[in-house]
Amino acid sequence: MKETGCGAVMVGRGAQGNPWIFPQIRHYLATGEVLPPPTAMERYEQMLSHFEALLAYKGEYIGVREMRSHASWYTHGLYGSAALRERINRAASADEFRSIVRDMMDKAR
Which GO terms fall under molecular function for this chain's record (predicted)? Predict the structure, then answer.
């Protein structure tokens, strides 16, 4: 920002599945230090938190289906993520979704 004189930065899709981007940007602008990316476990925990909020707001039927696309962003680049997304895309209930994610969390430990 100092180099170009711009007044703002548009994050856009960089925030999808990556809510850590905002504290990372703030930290970098304040210190010049790049924070490490979130661990797989942190991603899974945040995904479940997001899922629970979505369920509370939209209900189970819509929440499960909408979370499928969000899960794709959260898991992008993680080991085994293609198989995980395939399982998530078939999840028909909140319990099934949670079970799939918790299974991956157990494997990530």
Answer: RNA binding; tRNA dihydrouridine synthase activity
